[in-house]
Structures are given as C-alpha cells and as structure tokens.
Design goal:
Blueprint (H helix, E strand, L loop, with lengths): L6 E5 L23 H14 L3 E4 L20 H11 L4 E7 L5 H14 L5 E5 L4 H7 L7 H20 L6 E4 L4 E3 L9 E2 L4 E2 L14 E4 L11 E4 L4 H11 L3 E10 L6 H9 L11 E5 L1 H11 L5 E6 L2 H18 L12 H5 L7 H5 L11
Helix pairs in contact: 1-2, 1-9, 2-3, 3-5, 8-9
C-alpha cells in the first residue's frame, strides 16, 4: 500500500541555514527584521505549496556565539502571529523552549496563535542548552540531557493540559441567561513537578485544533506527547529507521539543502560563503548539494521512508526560489506531495485527528477553585 503524500515544511528564520547567508540575501541587511521581508518569504512558501513553515528562536541572539551571522531576531511567536495574519493556508510553527519559560505563558501564546490563524498553529518544542540562557531568564541553570528532557516533558504535559482545561463547549455566550461560560466545563490542571507547579485552568479558550500540532526531536519528549517527530539520518534509510523508532504518529526528516541556481552551482555558492564562516552540519541531518532534479529524486526516496521533510535552505532568497520553480511543482506532478487545501486546519492537512479534551475523555469534571494571588 503506497504511503500518503509527503508533507513539506521549510525553516524560514533569518536569511538561511548558513550563518553568513545574509551576505547573499536579496535585501539590505537592515530589512531582515522588517514585516515586509517576513511577509514576502511567507508568501513565497505558501504559493509554492509548502504545508507549513517553522521559525527558529532562542532568548539568546543568533550571533551570540561570535559567528558572522545576524545578532538579533524578533520572537518566533510574534513573527508566527504576523505570518498567520498575512497567509491563508500555510501552517505556522514557532520554536518555543520550556526550559526556562513558564508553561502557562507558552500555552497561552500558542493557543492564541491557533485562534489567530484559524487552526493553523504548530509548536516546535525547543530546549535552551546554553547556560547564558539561564542568566538571561534569571533562573538556575538546567544542565544535562536528563534535566533538559525533564523540563521539556513536564512543560509539554502542562501545556497540553492547559489547552484541554477548557472543554470544547465551555463557552456558552447566552444572552438570555447572562452566562458566558459553563464553569463546570473548566478544569484545574493541578500539576506539581520537580521545579514548578501550575494550578490552571488556562486563560485562553480551547484552541480551534483542540491542541496545536506538536513537533519535537526524539528523546526530548516522550513519543506519545508529540504529533510529529523530527528525525535525522545520514541517508534516507537511516532517516526511515529513525522514523520507525520514534513512535510518533508522523515523522519528518531534517534535510539541509543547497541548490544550483541559474548563475552558480551549489558548490560555488557554498564556497563563497565559506570564506566568512563554515557551514557546520546539523546533528545527524541529511544534506543535499546539487541540481533541483537530484533533490526531487532524494525526496522521492524519502517518501517511502518518512511522512514529511523539513527543509533548511542554504540561502532563503536563492534556494526558496529554486524550490518553488523546480522542486515542488515536480513533486506535485509526480503525486509525491500535495498542497494544503484552503479552509483546513494544520491537523487536517497532516491527516491528524482532532483530540478531545482529556478532561472530557476522563469523564468527571474537576471543580475550578477561586484563588487570590
């Protein structure tokens, strides 16, 4: 039985995957952080037929390590809200780490994004590994893989419970009875973890999707809490093996791409940027360098191994144009991928069911306690 069509995602943070990508951008350096630039890139991705875009983020600036890239960025959730308002079918998934951020705030931000986008929000679960992030937050350092995974796991569980804390029919809006809410359908989360506790319920009604789509790399959070596993592998076979081992409903392979353009080969473009900074390979990621036709063949091979891919272009302004003209159209012609349909949520585009609130599923309602702070 053939696999469903490949889902296509692309990372659009900054000017590209190479730290010196800004040197080849089609705009002035000062335009990087402008709404016009972001809207233009998002429009290209949507018109090309991508299912979703992701937006990298950290409390630390991208050039904090002393590299040659930009030294500032706008928050991913804020950029995602702008992209959601300027597009109509494109899924939008910002990176948000719960290592130091409060899960209550994360839940509210992402639920609001899902409302703003009419059900097109996703969440790439991140982790802040640099001790400088703890200093920026004014929090004790979370050190070690186990502690980082604990914070991500607990944070994700709390966020999911907060999304579920309003049942779907909790909002009544009854003028006749002067009731806006059915308070019996709001639930306290009452989470107590090793480093924090959360009472709940959320201050934002349940998102249109029930829960925005959660993307995470295997090992950071339990497989049962993620909708999409972001897997690596040096070959399509390795990516497929990692996808099967991940245990999530869907698995996307991470692929770095540098494509031939009409004026230069991919190797020439990389060599030009390597004069300023090396392009370090991502952890256990596929990397493709060459003509568009070769990338189509690679994605065709991946289509038999994974459910989707997240592409990381070398230089957005150059590679995204080639992807739009030569790669995605061929994938659609060969029925290896499909465009998202207007009026659908991101969950629908990905073939994921809309989950019930776990409080509805569990049956008994937890009374909401009035608290003073």
């Amino acid at each position: 039985m053939p696999r469903p069509a490949l889902h296509l995602a692309v990372e659009i943070d900054g000017d590209g995957a190479h730290p010196a990508a800004w040197r080849r951008a089609a705009h002035s350096p000062g335009e990087l952080l402008t709404p016009r630039r972001l809207a233009r890139v998002a429009a290209v991705a949507e018109n090309a037929g991508f299912t979703l875009v992701t937006l990298e983020d950290s409390i630390l600036p991208p050039g904090a390590d002393g590299g040659s890239g930009p030294v500032g960025r706008i928050g991913a959730v804020e950029r995602a809200a702008f992209v959601a308002a300027s597009t109509s079918v494109l899924g939008v998934a910002p990176v948000v780490a719960t290592t130091y951020a409060e899960p209550f705030h994360v839940s509210s931000q992402l639920a609001s994004l899902d409302h703003v986008s009419a059900g097109r929000a996703g969440w790439v679960v991140g982790a802040e590994e640099d001790p400088a992030a703890a200093r920026a937050w004014g929090r004790p350092v979370v050190e070690g893989a186990d502690a980082l995974a604990r914070e991500a796991r607990d944070g994700l569980r709390v966020v999911r419970d907060l999304w579920d804390s309003w049942e779907d029919d909790a909002v009544i809006r009854s003028v006749a009875t002067s009731r806006y809410l059915d308070r019996s359908r709001l639930h306290a989360v009452d989470f107590v973890g090793e480093t924090y506790s959360v009472k709940g319920p959320s201050i934002v009604p349940r998102p249109p999707q029930g829960r925005p789509v959660v993307l995470a790399r295997p090992g950071l959070v339990p497989a049962g809490l993620a909708d999409v596993a972001l897997v690596g592998g040096a070959t399509p076979a390795e990516a497929g093996e990692a996808a099967r081992a991940a245990g999530a409903p869907l698995a996307f392979a991470e692929v770095e791409v540098a494509l031939d353009t009409p004026g230069e080969s991919a190797r020439e473009r990389i060599a030009d940027l390597e004069r300023y900074s090396p392009w370090q390979p991502g952890p256990n990621r596929l990397r493709y360098t060459g003509p568009a036709a070769g990338l189509v063949d690679l994605l065709a091979e991946l289509a038999g191994q994974v459910d989707g891919v997240r592409l990381r272009p070398l230089v957005l302004d150059e590679d995204l144009a080639v992807l739009s003209r030569l790669v995605l159209p061929e994938l659609f012609v060969r029925r290896l991928a499909a465009r998202p349909l207007p009026g659908t949520t991101l969950r629908t585009s990905l073939g994921l069911p809309r989950p019930l609130s776990r409080f509805t599923t569990d049956g008994a309602a937890t009374p909401v306690r009035e608290e003073t702070r």
